[in-house]
């Protein structure tokens, strides 16, 4: 019979290799054995979110937080799940908690910025996304989202620079080329936009 650590390690191995079916099997086996580990509940909840089972995912992520209240990734994941469930204010609260426990959590600042952008708070969105970029200058999606926030705020030259940085970091991301074309059209640079 495998030990608790062997089950955990095998589950993590399958998960990191992208073998989600086997990872789920091991996570469920671990849980059904009555074992308790915040990482297992958090990872299993993350998989459930990825396959669209947000209500179940929320329960498992909350169990992870109950076990280890200062586990920043669980607060971050819970925030993302709550956004998907339409619970925006609660999502903001949990993403702030993730940042509290892990102050240099660039992805948390980025997602917080996206929430602010989607809820009509461009100033807060810009500040949060800029913080993500300060922490992780090569986070391409942060540059992309900053470019969109700046575009919507009418700061077209800055938006253009942000989207160009996205293209530099992630040249295969088609959305950035489209967004850049829109910005260039708005700046009157029709030939460049084409």
Can you characterise this structure?
- It is a single chain.
- The chain has helices at residues 4-16, 20-32, 38-50, 54-67, 72-84, 88-101, 106-118, 122-135, 140-152, 156-169, 174-186, 190-193.
- The chain has 194 residues and is an all-alpha fold.
- Helix 3 (38-50) packs antiparallel against helix 4 and helix 5 packs antiparallel against helix 6 (88-101).
- The chain is elongated, with a radius of gyration of 20 Å.
- The chain starts with a helix and ends with a helix.
- The mean pLDDT is 94.
Count of individual helical segments: 12
Shape: elongated
Total beta strands: 0
Helix/strand/pairing category:
mainly alpha
- Helical amount: over 70%
End-to-end separation in angstroms reads 63 Å
Report the order of strands and helices. Answer: HHHHHHHHHHHH
Radius of gyration: 20 Å
On the 0-100 scale, what is the average pLDDT? 94
Taking pLDDT < 50 over at least 5 consecutive residues as the criterion, the unreliable ranges are none
What is the makeup of the main sheet? none
Strand content: under 5%
Primary descriptors:
12 helices; mainly alpha; 0% strand; 78% helix; 194 residues
Quick overview:
The chain is mainly alpha-helical and 194 residues long.
Write the layout of secondary structure elements.
Blueprint: H1 4-16, H2 20-32, H3 38-50, H4 54-67, H5 72-84, H6 88-101, H7 106-118, H8 122-135, H9 140-152, H10 156-169, H11 174-186, H12 190-193
